[in-house]
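The aim of this short unit is practical: by the end, you should be able to scan a pair of folded records and say something sensible about each. We start with the first protein, listed as its amino acid sequence and then its structure tokens.
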Amino acid sequence: MPDHAMPAPTDRTTDDYPLLDRRFSVFSVLVLVSAVAAAAGVSWWLPFTGGPELIWTGLLLVLGFLVVEQLSVNIDVRGGVSWTISFTEIPLAIGLFVAPFQVVLAAHLIAGVSTLLARRVQDRVLYNTGAEIFEIAVAYSVFTVVAGAVGTGDPDWFAVFVGALSAPITSTLLALVAVYVLGRRMRLGAATKLVSRTLVLGLVNASVGVVGFEVATGVDHGWPLVIALLGGLWALYLAYSGLLREQRDLEALSEVSLIVARSGRRAAARPAAGPETATAVSAEDWLGIAQRIKDQLGAARVVLRLRFDPGQPMHTVVAGEELAADMHDVEPNGARADALLRLPGSHVRHFRRADALPEVRTALMQRATQEALVVPLRSASHLLGVVEAHDKLSRWRGFGQADIRMIGTTASHLATALDNRRLLATLRHDAYHDPLTGLYNRPGFRQVATELLTTNPGSVMLRLDLEVQPAISDALGYAWSDRIVIAAGRRLRETLGQDTPLARLEGGAFAALLVDSDFEQAQLVANRLVTSLSAPYPVDRLSIEAGVVIGYSSATMADGVLFSDSTSAPSGARDAAPAGLDVDELLKRADVALRAAQSSGERTRAYVPSMGQMFLRRFQLVTQFRQSMETGQVKIHYQPKIALPSREVLGVEALVRWRHPDFGDLHPDEFVPAVEAAGLVDALTDFVLDKALIKVRMWMDRGLRIGVAVNLSVRSLANLDFPDGVAAALARHRVPPELLTLELTESGVMADPQRALPVLRALHNLGVVLAVDDFGTGYSSLAYLRQLPVDEVKIDKSFVFGMGSDLGDLAVVRSIVELGHSLGLTVVAEGVEEDVARDQLAAMGCDVAQGYLISRPLSEERLEAWLQARTAQARGLRDEMVLTLLS
């Protein structure tokens, strides 16, 4: 006889349960009314015949039905319906042999309803009563029809067999109708398999009932044979029940783990979820887990007490009978813990009211239960929760060893799954968040911002850079700069609010997305951020000053047009704009605006399309530079240097020039910084050095001893292998090292003097000339000048320009000349454009002059012509002097 239950709520929300209850109640009433009508029809068709002697028969049948109910085998169906297959067909077959319809029906109802009430399954009494009536009514109808067809006067065993077999088939089909009415899905194959298994068991039970009755009544001393047959059948079913129990336990464990894992993927997939809150399974899933454990144990109630966040009270989930309100907030091992929840270790504890200690009996009475299984959920470090199972329903003997093993194993799997989810959530949180500030990192920000831009295209992206990082790191160390970053992140969050996506990208770079905002609102927010972030940062006894630069771009800007609102955009463009600007594009544009603000000295700057063209141009320059060197677009020009006062050509400075096919002649100030930022400066240095040494070798082959000067970058001074490369180049081109001058700036040396000094000493040991370029404009590190292994200093042209009109510049130039000579250095003056400046420098004792007065930077061809002209002029002067002397 199927014992139908409510569907397991693994795929229902909590709002569905009242609807399911009402639907099941209405269906139960309909089943009961239909069954009563069917029973009335069968009673009219088969009127009661018999006397008082049937009372004992009825009592024996009640006893038989009660016994088989206690020897039942429970089966759970994936579709959400559970029922019990018992030996009901055996006493039913005997009843078909010896009693009328009314007696068997009464015996069956008394046994079935009393069993349900004893198990306190009150919610299924109406449905099960109707199902039991249908079983007996259909069995007697089929029995009567088959017996009439056979045509014998006495009850025929075949008619009894068919009638008894029709009862489980009827209840199974009714259960499938219940599955459909309750809106649960069950595949046709699964339903067919279920009916076929029920049919097989029904065949066995009906056969045993018929054969047992025939043997007991037709064979002398046949009752022992019947008892032996029943004992063997019961043992077979008991073994079968054990196999089914193991299979169902494995399925239950798998389902519980899958529910936790599935909800974990949903919760942890959001980067906004924290490592603790992401581990909280939804109430719907927890109720499904509790219901699944309850169904598996056959318990009246299962209580889950779960602690989602450390330090927070436990959350209570109840499946089955209601729990008293004051028992919901009982804390394990806490001040309110009762005897059931003082849980050392992690083993299952089994409590019975009948043999319990007084405090345990009190705890059971507070739960309105006779017995309970209690097991903690523990991870390696702390208590995650507690599982309680109250009162066994399926057997009067209570929970057994199989139930204890099942709930213990389930608790272990559940604790492991929860601990794994906590670890997974922590890992996912760390993957999406910056460990220093707790804000989003770049991947987390990209995901959240992408989701928001999908539904809120009218948003503005902010990019912020703190202007304090290098100074703090150099002066106080990285730990102090990290403290400034943490404080800045806290100020950003306070200013923008909790709902604004905010990220630390790297170092002191931050990004934020202002949802449903425009440029005007973004400018107001940017001004507030500048005020907040520029305020001094108190760190211990220090007060650190910091600056901030902000660039921002709009998500509604496309094709160089900014749409201030949706109505001002042309049709089609409104749809195209958001689709073309993803998070990375917005960040790139905001970064372009930020760099523009830094270049112009502003604190905030909005992105405009012209900035995009500048960025595109810079990108093209960087990506095309290496190819341009190979194709000859990048060339070397040379600016001559002469000795003072003899005006003899001593050397040239190699200057790089780039004639771009699209952009024309490019000034080094435009492309060299981009090349350095892209990491291509080593290739540029090698290119210039190689070309310059080839030129020196060519002059040497012609009998000219002209040196060449090559500018070095900061990157070269930090490369310990650079001197070896210079030595190899000199050897390859057979150029004496004294004809090569390497020029470096003050700021380049002072960026990291301890790292630059070994490189400079190695170059000095090679014999190359080292010159400090633009001297006087950088750190003015005169003290370091004595420590540096340099050979000459170059006076910055800004001082040379001002000598004729500014006495201060004249004094600076004279001081540098005197200082250089006192240190044994050659002094070179740049920017000489007038005869007066040349004469003044010569009078001061300056050694070398360079500038437009001597020559502009020249290409190789023009330099050769210039040298020939100077050589001819010098030869002419010598001839003129000889003629003068002879005359």
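Turning to the second protein, read its sequence before its tokens, just as you did above.
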Amino acid sequence: MPPMNDDLDLSRPLRALKRFTWLVLLLSLAAGAVTYLLSSRQTPVYQAKTLILSAGSQTSNPSVGNTVVSPPPLPAGAIEGALQSENVLGVVRRRLAEVPELTRAQRIVLADRLAQDIASGRGRVFDVSGQQDIYGNGTYTLSATHRDPVVAARLANLAADALVDWDTERGLVKVNAAINGLRTRLADVERRLAAAGPVVGTPTSLQQTLLAQRANRLDALNNLTALRETVVGSLSVVAPAAVPLKPVAPKPLRNAVLVGGFVLLLLSALLVLWSSVNRMVASDADLKFLNLRLLGEVPRVRLLRRGQSLLVALRQGRWSDSVAFLAAGVKSVLPKGERRPPVLLVTSLFSGDGKSNISAAIADARVASGDRVLLIDADLRRPSQASIWQAGAQTAEWVDLPGAVPFPGEESRDLLGALDRPVTAQARRLRDNLHLLAPAPGMHAQTQAHLPAERFREAMTQWGAGYDLIVVDGPPALAVADPLVLAPHAAGVLLVLEAGRASVASVQRVLDALLLVNANVLGVALNKVNPRGQVARYGYGYARRSTPAAAPKPESRVL
């Protein structure tokens, strides 16, 4: 058999998305609905905005005594940094008493938040945005958020006033420095005049010079003092904050859409990742990836009443064609005319995949088509054929197997005894042309029992002459080594997989082991397939249009 195909397979994630679309959408809608409910119950938050103008040439660059006294243009980021500083937020904290809508407890909480904003440099109450050119000209929007719209407007105006006052103080720095400098020089002139003596009559040349300097500096000092009262900064409030009418948060619909979309994308990504990592065999496309042929699919079977046989449900029910299709597929690929006897070994990966029911169904279908079939229950640890065939496996008459001539009292009526003494082997006659050879009762307790490979080969050669097909119900291949021991002596191996249960890696591991022992793997029978998801399959989808209305929900049991 060719090795596993390593090409990129996108069909698996697409099938996984298609299969779980309803679940992903349901979870996304649920997440969006929960988000909407939680958001709608949150306290609304209002945001008030004020517009501030920055004019870099507002003071016209005046100079007094050869000293430029206008403030420099605000550099980029200066307003944002000043808004989160003690110079602005500290003033707002001290002026919170001017907001009558705040209670004392609310003022304390808000003051603490402003203190945290100052310490961290990150604003939660105030924010400013805008831009300016290289000359410091531009506009800024200062916003304040609060649960009370009136408080939000008052806070925005307080912060704007504090920011303008800070800028004004920045503009007075040079003016105050110039005034202090002139006062120092004026005091020096007064000291020198005092040292020159009192002015009597005509002043001396030195006194005239000092008097002229004093007059000039007094004039400059008066001009700067007058300028200090008129100097403003680069910032001015253009539009004070108005009371907002609509809250900015929460937005239940927007939050619900965002959360729902995020959950949808997250679940879809996780589903694609899961389908890529956990590569499960669920359809014929997965088998093509393993270069395996699909011989048939058997759906889940619901029994109409308690105690009903699965074989009866398959034989007479609406799914009978699926078993017939599988049996015909096995017959078509089983080698003919070779030295090996017509032995079909049926195995699975795990217990519970339904390989025993598939074995019984294939044997029953082949007998119905006119073949002579021997059914061997070779699962020593968990024999199941006796319970599948119910009373027929306990009360049916005994028949001699081909080549056996037992004396009375020396019959070998269990599997190990028949393999040990083929000439005395007998089997139960379940129906015309169908015989069953099973382990002795209580054999499942002997967990260390194994089938002898050489005796099995000899017995199959002897018994194969009297049957058209020998169906061997073997144990799971991943549980014990018996299937690997028996596979070389069978004409073909049928692998039964429960749809969506076995991973690609585990199937590949079993295939590699079967290839090592030179087994002829015929293909795969997918069991417990969901018929609703496979309505196009021949056998159990073909007759669905003529199926009458569904009966009341019966007890569920799967093949």
